[in-house]
Amino acid sequence: MTRTETFSLEFLTELQQLYQEHRTGLLLITGAKWMVQLNLEHGEIVYLACSDKRGAEALPLLQEISSGKLRFVEGSTLALRTPLPTTSEILSYLGAGRSVSAPTPARPASEQQLSAPVRTVLQQKLAEFIGPMALFVCEERLVGVHDLETAMVTLSQVLPNPAAVDRFKENVRKQLG
Fold this sequence. Notes:
Layout lengths: L8 H12 L4 E6 L4 E7 L2 E7 L2 E2 L4 H4 L6 E6 L12 H7 L22 H15 L2 H9 L6 H9 L5 H15 L1
Antiparallel strand pairs: 1-2, 1-5, 2-3, 3-4
Helix pairs in contact: 4-5, 4-7
């Protein structure tokens, strides 16, 4: 593998720390048009999904991630596995040799504008396509969203294809009447 200089230092720092501390859980990185899921067991990356790619096939996509939101949820992960190089090889690939600084503190979340029932429907319908990550995607992407149409457009950006986007929007509209 070759080394990249574009993978976010903030994300790399967090990933290195989780690896060194032998942590277990789900690491989710979301951006405007993509989402990355890494499952870690005792610090080792056992599953990687980025957009519609899985495992080693998704590694080149990681090189393009320079910003976004990161969230780690401690605890056991689903039994998902993908063929991957070792975690230390992945860290080297992502540029672990670069100087790493402390992550910038997160900004406080502003108050949500959509009603709780609408948010619940959006999360449930999104989960039909992306699974439990829908909770985190909704939390992060619906901050400051004021109306249903904007919410559907915002959430549909993480879906893999136009057919899924159409089905998601249709399912939300059916559920909400």
